[in-house]
Design brief:
The complex is a heterodimer of chains A (185) and B (263). With 185 residues, chain A is an alpha+beta fold. Chain A has helices at 35-48, 75-89, 116-121, 148-184, and strands at 13-20, 61-68, 99-106, 109-112, 124-131, 136-146. Chain B has helices at residues 4-18, 99-114, 147-160, 207-212, 240-261; strands at 34-38, 46-52, 55-66, 77-84, 124-126, 130-142, 163-170, 173-182, 190-197, 200-203, 215-221, 227-233. The chains are: A alpha+beta (185), B alpha+beta (263). Chain A binds chain B through residues 8-11, 35-36, 38-39, 41-43, 46, 49-50, 54, 120, 126, 131, 134-148, 151-152, 155-156, 159, and chain B through 1-2, 71, 99, 102-103, 105-106, 110, 113-115, 215, 217, 222, 225-240, 243-244, 247-248, 251.
């Protein structure tokens, strides 16, 4: 891993960079990393770490680079879903894939996967990352106001969304290797 | 990095947790003693110092005038910045803010913003042109664990202590007058952080516990018993059951603290 002094003698180091392209949003975003991007890089890293066998790969580094090309809400969830797949595709052993999905509240109704306009108008947004086979939530954030009951409903709804995305992730991995096999034949 | 010492510590903490005990003799659901002092920085419009056990955080509030954001032309602006000063911990280095201080600032910010703690509509001077900008600067003076809760409480205490300058608008120019009014507040969110070590949930983790902690989850709650912000941190996960349990603990703890602080 580079720079060398960041390597850990007892475990693998996962680094993530979440970055938005200047043209990905309505008003041009400066390409310099914003505080939001620094925070999201950190939570994305922490949502992927539980899926990796960090302790089995001392002095190793894995870098994940996420570039948001167009943002229409739910970019952190899409980033986690894609990053987990990319890590699996790279052949890094994983405990499970990480799927992410958000739930939120718009006009007193709890709904799945807010898009940009809903996110700006909505009362709450709860992004969740989840490893279905291990029943483990690896990312949970929330902003907006929810009652404890609404919160429980939102988390459950988001986890159901994650399970659907999880099926698609597995499908995507399988499809890729199926194509390789067909070419060989 | 987990040094041999933290591995020994982890063993010790885990053995104690099995018996429902902690290194500093607290129960799993006990917070450390909280002391709040307000108004010690006279040059700031508002200030507060919070001692959470040995963790010490000073928050200063400055108010200036400036332009509103284009999407909220009728509202004042609030920004939170956190400074992990090197004297607070051997692990804090001088230099530009790292991801930990940015996360701390953004979690404190989210608690205040999402609970609508400040009545930003009352901070508008001239719609679209001139509004009051509230700068909340979090200064960590001693790090003994759970900076998030200490900082969030200190931020609200400082905002409650904040005086807004009186002003008048004359020919489109803002003139600051003599005297002050309190900063208009709508809500007093209380933030509670719960750590997880070896599948045990514990409230208000201190430094030794933080150094071996698997993950943490922070809830900001308002006076109606609703949740207004959450942040999970750390390199491990929670089961859905643990999250619901943690949310109940956080709401209970916040209500307890709210009573004690009279917020």
């Amino acid at each position: 891993m580079h720079p060398k002094h960041l390597a850990q003698p007892d475990r693998m180091v996962l680094r993530c960079r979440y970055h938005m392209a200047p043209f990905s949003v309505q008003e041009r975003k400066s390409p310099a990393p914003s505080r939001r991007e620094v925070e999201l890089s950190k939570v994305i890293k922490e949502s992927l770490e539980p899926a990796l066998f960090l302790e089995l790969y001392p002095r190793t580094g894995v870098d994940v680079f996420v570039e948001v090309l167009q943002a229409d809400g739910g970019t952190r969830c899409a980033s986690i879903t894609a990053a987990a797949l990319a890590i699996a595709d790279a052949g890094v052993p994983m405990r499970d894939l990480v799927a992410a999905c958000a739930a939120g509240k718009v006009d007193d109704t709890v709904v799945l996967d807010l898009y940009d306009a809903e996110d700006k108008l909505g009362c709450a947004d709860v992004p969740v990352a989840y490893m279905p086979s291990l029943n483990a939530v690896t990312l949970l954030q929330m902003d907006g106001i929810l009652s404890p009951d609404e919160f429980e409903k939102a988390v459950n709804m988001a986890m159901d969304g994650c399970k659907k995305i999880y099926a698609l992730q597995k499908e995507a991995l399988k499809t890729k290797y199926m194509v390789v096999k067909e070419v060989e034949e | 990095m987990s040094s041999p010492i933290t591995k020994v510590r982890l063993k010790q903490i885990e053995t104690l947790l099995e018996k429902g005990k902690r290194l500093d003799d607290r129960g799993l659901l006990d917070t450390r003693e909280i002391k709040i002092e307000q108004g010690m920085i006279e040059k700031a419009e508002g200030s507060a110092r919070v001692l959470l056990g040995k963790t010490e955080v000073l928050v200063g509030v400055k108010i200036e005038t400036g332009e509103p954001f284009p999407d909220t032309p009728n509202e004042g602006v609030m920004t939170v910045n956190a400074e992990l000063v090197p004297l607070a911990s051997p692990n804090f280095e001088p230099g530009p803010p790292d991801e930990n201080s940015i996360e701390l600032a953004r979690v404190v910010d989210r608690g205040i913003r999402e609970s609508h703690a400040i009545d930003t509509a009352k901070l508008c001077i001239e719609p679209g042109k001139n509004v009051f900008v509230v700068f909340v600067d979090v200064y960590v003076l001693n790090h003994d664990g759970n900076l998030i809760d200490a900082s969030a409480i200190a931020a609200i205490a400082a905002l409650l202590n904040t005086k807004m300058p009186n002003y008048e608008v004359k020919d489109g120019e803002v003139k600051i007058k003599q005297g002050y009014t309190p900063l208009p507040m709508k809500s007093h969110p209380i933030t509670v952080t719960i750590g997880k070590i070896n599948n045990k949930l514990l409230v208000d983790p201190w430094l030794e516990e933080e150094s071996v902690m698997d993950s943490r989850i922070t809830f900001a709650t308002n006076e109606d018993g609703n949740i207004c912000a959450i942040q999970k941190g750390g390199s491990s996960s929670f089961t859905p059951q643990q999250i619901l349990e943690a949310s109940k603990i956080a709401l209970d703890k916040a209500a307890e603290l709210r009573k004690k602080l009279n917020w």
